[in-house]
Amino acid sequence: MKITLKEIAKLAGVSRGTVDRAINNRGQIAPDIKQRIIEIAERHGYKKNIIASNLAKNKKINIDIILPNPKLDSFWKAPVKGIKNLEPQLSNFRFSLQYRFYKIDNSDSYSAALNDAIQSKPDGILIAPGFLKETMQYFKIAEQNNIPFICINSEINHTEIISYIGQNSYECGQIAGSLFDKRKTGGKDIVVLTLGYEHINNKIKGLEEYNIVNKCGFNIHNYVITDFENTDTYKKYVEKIEKIKGSIKGILFTNSRAYKFLNTTNLNQLLEPEVTYIGFDLIPENIKLLKSNKLTYILNQSPQKQGYLGVINFFYYFIYNRELPEKIYLPIDIVIKESCDTYLNSLNDIPDFLI
To answer: Three-state SS across 186-255?
Structure first.
């Protein structure tokens, strides 16, 4: 088994930083301590990561980042912030990041971003998949060009994806089912609203299976609103909901766009006060709804951490030649009105390099 810098430090009776300075011949260190560290390292067969050293010194690593435009959908400001927290450190390792934003409701815009990225022949692509059919088509092209992908937020299985970072969507559905179940008020009807292209339906699957296993007796009504930017289309869904309003237990919004529906309809006034509303993600618009009792719970999917980990894992992959875990599921935090400010403050207290 290879000895680590931490183990060398323990044997030498010094800090890991001192070992790093001795082995890499940088900074001030006493000659006798340096000699002791080198002797321990050689005796235990320690070898510097030559791949890391060479890449850091000689090769520029180009990473293309394909995300929905944060100016058009505020959820995506968080992953971009997480990535930008890394940029100063990555520049020391000749990492170059190219952002390619697409319109979240436009498959042509998405295809164009993917096409431009692949044509530029980057070393890797960090992507939040938007449209399943187009994604799979371009993955085939990427495979021919040996371009690896890291996916965030939407989980897709493909050989070119070396790692997925984000929520466990099935678990999200299970959590929603549990929250509905534990609130003993209301009827048995659950309305699920997806504002966008829901190509990953594991949240709904998780909710449905929770319902079956726990014998909740929910009647689940699933609606997908692809034309979600046209708020005039919301009227027909409100009419569908109104027909069962007396028996509704809860409303589940499967992504961050709860605010679009609730702010442009009279749904909160139409339904009984005890109805449970669950949305996703602590964007400002949803936080306002939570504080005004128009959302009961927000499930937070750590979007800032998704962006950060997406890029830092490419760093580990290329600089340290490290094999990445296929899936990195992030915790799902349940936020209520009473804990919202404390939760947000705790996020702000975390240093950027730990986010």
So the answer is: CCCEEEEEEECCCCCCHHHHHHHHHHHHCCCCCEEEEEEECCCCCHHHHHHHHHHHHCCHHHEEEEEECC
At 350 the pLDDT is 46
Domain regions of the chain by residue span: 5-48, 55-167+303-330, 169-300
- Among residues 12, 74, 96, 80, which one has the least CA distance to residue 46? 12
Q: What is the pLDDT of residues 168-217, one digit of tens each?
A: 999 999 999 999 999 888 789 999 999 987 555 689 999 999 999 999 99
Q: Token pair of 64, please?
A: 């293309």
Per CATH, the number for 169-300 is 3.40.50.2300
Helices 5-12/16-23 angle, 10° precision: 110
Strands 327-329 vs 149-152: parallel, antiparallel or unpaired: unpaired
Half-sphere exposure of 254 (CA within 13 A, CB side): 32
Q: How far apart are the first and last CA of the chain?
A: 31
Q: What is the pLDDT of residues 244-271, one digit of tens each?
A: 999 999 999 999 999 999 999 999 999 9
Please give the C-alpha separations between residue 84 and each of 91, 162, 163, in angstroms, as whole numbers: 11, 22, 20
| The model scores a pTM over 0.85 | no
Residue 82 token pair: 């997480």
For domain 55-167+303-330, which CATH number applies: 3.20.20.80, 1.10.10.60, 3.40.50.2300, 2.10.109.10?
3.40.50.2300
